[in-house]
């Protein structure tokens, strides 16, 4: 029996790799003749780097770059197993968890380090990129990244603006003439499940600003700043990007990447293509996916939904194992044979997270026993 295990992470408690290996352990302990293929997934957020390095047997490159608060940090990016694609995870360079809660303020954070990492990889000869945008601490529209790449943004006095969100409203002149010409040789794929435009009520500042520590007044300031910044950049380039779905991802870094020629993709699809998920689905007798919380939102760009849809196309049974099941879970009936929560009794979220490994293992063992009973009969 061939089992494909392709989950997302249980955010805050288990990586997608850990989830995969625990489910594999459960099935191999129940079955004597099972062949499990682990294919941990990600949707463009935290974990995309580790997931792709694990699944493609890639390598990690360590370097020093500018962190979200402007100080130098130790970070990394990856090279896929084929040696061709550089993988950059926003959360590892300018991620929200990198900033203490009392210092979170998207007016003061920067994407400058993303530009530095891009330059580092380009100097090593890489021309293909996947950039995962989830988990950002920034709201600078990609201003910092563009400055690191050689673009110049000056105020009314002709001085260069700081590469932070607070500078957006003060930009008077834009000059892309110094931007790295190597970018024209690059293929940059943005992995994101966010479809928000750059500005407005559905834009980066209003939707994601609060979780990054922005006050209502700061949200308005950032939104107006992004609109001003975008108008200056678009006038300079003669092309509009700010209303493109996904331009608002990662505090507008989506916009910054679009203006240098990047293309937006479903994060789950990008990861699936890299790890050859489709081929593994074709060979599988059973597919198992999962995530920390499953509910009606799972249908919209989440990993389990992507895996379930691909499994359905190949007429393969797919099961979902989640940390918890929420509102509207019945909306997933057409994608999964069944869905399961690892919570086996009334418990708090904290208790579940503390015991997540045992709870997941026990749930997977029970599912494996049920599958084995039907298989032998």
UniProtKB/TrEMBL annotation:
Keywords: Kinase, Transferase
An example Gene Ontology biological process: organic acid phosphorylation
Database matches in SUPFAM superfamilies: Glycerate kinase I
Name of one Pfam family that matches: Gly_kinase
Gene3D superfamilies in the cross-refs: Glycerate kinase, domain 1, Glycerate kinase, domain 2
InterPro entries cross-referenced by the UniProt entry: Glyc_kinase_flavodox-like_fold (IPR018193), Glycerate_kinase (IPR004381), Glycerate_kinase_RE-like (IPR018197), Glycerate_kinase_sf (IPR036129)
GO molecular function: glycerate kinase activity
Family statement: Belongs to the glycerate kinase type-1 family.
Protein name stated in the entry: Glycerate kinase
Source species of the chain: Pontibacillus marinus BH030004 = DSM 16465
């Amino acid at each position: 029996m061939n089992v494909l295990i392709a989950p997302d992470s249980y955010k805050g408690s288990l990586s997608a790799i850990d989830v995969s290996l625990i489910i594999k352990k459960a099935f191999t302990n129940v079955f004597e003749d099972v062949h499990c293929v682990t294919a941990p997934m990600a949707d463009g957020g935290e974990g995309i780097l580790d997931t792709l390095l694990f699944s493609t047997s890639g390598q990690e490159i360590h370097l020093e770059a500018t962190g979200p608060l402007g100080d130098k940090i130790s970070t990394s990016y990856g090279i896929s197993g084929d040696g061709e694609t550089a993988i950059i995870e926003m959360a590892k360079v300018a991620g929200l968890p990198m900033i203490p809660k009392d210092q979170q303020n998207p007016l003061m954070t920067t994407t400058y380090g993303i530009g530095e990492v891009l330059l580092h990889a380009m100097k090593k000869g890489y021309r293909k990129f996947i950039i995962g945008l989830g988990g950002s601490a920034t709201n600078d529209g990609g201003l910092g990244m563009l400055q690191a790449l050689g673009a110049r943004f000056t105020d009314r006095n002709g001085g260069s603006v700081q590469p932070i969100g607070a500078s957006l409203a003060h930009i008077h002149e834009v000059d892309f003439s110094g931007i790295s010409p190597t970018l024209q040789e690059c293929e940059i794929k943005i992995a994101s499940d966010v479809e928000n435009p750059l500005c407005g009520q559905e834009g980066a500042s209003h939707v994601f600003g609060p979780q990054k520590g922005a006050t209502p007044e700061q949200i308005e300031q950032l939104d107006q700043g992004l609109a001003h910044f975008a108008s200056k950049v678009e006038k300079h380039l003669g092309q509009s990007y700010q209303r493109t779905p996904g331009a608002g991802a990662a505090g507008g870094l989506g916009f910054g990447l679009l203006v240098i020629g990047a293309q937006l993709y479903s994060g789950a699809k990008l990861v699936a293509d890299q790890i050859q998920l489709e081929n593994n689905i074709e060979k599988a007798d059973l597919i198992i996916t999962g995530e920390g919380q499953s509910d009606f939102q799972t249908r919209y760009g989440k990993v389990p939904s992507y895996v379930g849809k691909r499994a359905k196309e190949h007429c393969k049974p797919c099961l979902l194992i989640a940390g918890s099941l929420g509102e509207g879970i019945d909306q997933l009936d057409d994608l999964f044979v069944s869905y399961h929560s690892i919570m086996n009794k009334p418990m708090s979220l904290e208790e579940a997270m503390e015991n997540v490994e045992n709870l997941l293992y026990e749930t997977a063992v029970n599912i494996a026993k049920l599958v084995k009973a039907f298989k032998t009969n």
